[in-house]
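Need the bound structure for magnesium ion, inputs here:
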Amino acid sequence: MRKIAVAMAKGGVGKTTTAVNLAYGLASGGKRVLLVDCDTQGQVAKFLGEKPAYGLYEFITERLEDGQFISRNATIHGCRPNLWILDGGIRLVELKNWLGEQSRENRQTILSQKLVPKDGALDYLIFDCAPGWDVLSVNILMAADEVLCPVALQGPSLQGLKTFFRYLQSAQKLNSDLRLEYILPTMFDRRTRHSHDNLMQLKKYFSRQLCDPVHHNVRLSEAPAHGQTIFEYDPRARGARDYRKLIRRIMNHGAPQKENT
Ligand SMILES: Nc1ncnc2c1ncn2[C@@H]1O[C@H](COP(=O)(O)OP(=O)(O)O)[C@@H](O)[C@H]1O
Ligand SMILES: [Mg+2]
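Answer from helper R.:
Posting the output first, comments after.
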């Protein structure tokens, strides 16, 4: 099973868009995927047009609001063939408090201890991370092996990277399996100089990890309002093509793919 965290210190860079479309694309290709929403904004379910009753809070604490026990399996919400989600949202604020109260030795690895699917049950675990750095982010980076870092090519995007690498380095001290495998440039606009300059910078520092960019694409920003992935909303859109390419690269363990769409 591969465990991929979609993470970046900044918000609004395309983390959720990437996590949702990646998870759906892998699932529709026959892989069994669990997508975990680790953000208090709880956008994953909205992007997929779903309203799960439970989520990551209940999964980890095995408790409902009224204190009653709930089994972990019951907290996982099936939303498409081969695709399940663990919902995030505001309950994660309480989850962070709960994690903070656990013993020092335990609190950073609780998620990785609990998230152990039966052999063959899942092919991919995808984590949609929140922008900040806290006890929950640490838990995710302890449970993941690969990091996919979306970088928006518009705005002062490369600034967020430095902060993120500091986070990543501290996580790698605790989880030596954790590797930065994919840098995904997002919101690429080929008409702007800024996009090209930022892309060149990324090429200079991350030639191995650098993926082909996802273009700025209005269809990508419209799809969530319809509760659909780009592959459902407009499979011929540029954004769908770009994400298909990313999915092929990931399935191919990071080797760049020739375009054939
Ligand atoms: N390639 C893209 N082109 C156009 N809009 C995009 C693109 N990627 C994401 N968006 C839109 O930008 C906003 C932020 O994206 P999101 O995935 O929620 O970022 P994050 O999870 O990093 O905060 C959303 O409204 C989303 O629909
Ligand atoms: Mg998000």
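Comments: Residues 2-251 form a domain with the Rossmann fold fold (CATH 3.40.50.300). The CA atoms of residues 10 and 159 lie 9 Å apart.
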